[in-house]
């Protein structure tokens, strides 16, 4: 059974959760920036086709 009163275990769990939060935040930002880059390229392509 896990002893949640152990301070080292709780610190380790909090550290892991913080690391996961940072990783998800960073990856989400990368995905959003890539999506905006693709949208800009598509918009330029559509403008060239309409000319």
Average the pLDDT over all residues and give the rounded result: 92
The 3D shape can be described as rod-shaped
Distance between the termini: 69 Å
Alpha carbon gyration radius: 22 Å
Structural class label: mainly alpha
Q: Count the helices. How many?
A: 1
Main β-sheet: number of strands, strand sense, barrel status?
Answer: none
Number of strands: 0
Please mark out the parts with pLDDT under 50 across 5 or more consecutive residues, or reply none: none
Percentage beta strand: under 5%
Helix content: over 70%
The helix/strand order is H
Describe this structure in words.
The protein has 51 residues and is an all-alpha fold. The protein has one helix and no strands. It has one helix at 7-50. The model has no long low-confidence stretch (mean pLDDT 92).
Write the layout of secondary structure elements.
Elements: H1 7-50
Q: Which characteristics define this entry?
A:
mainly alpha, single chain, 0% strand, 51 residues, rod-shaped
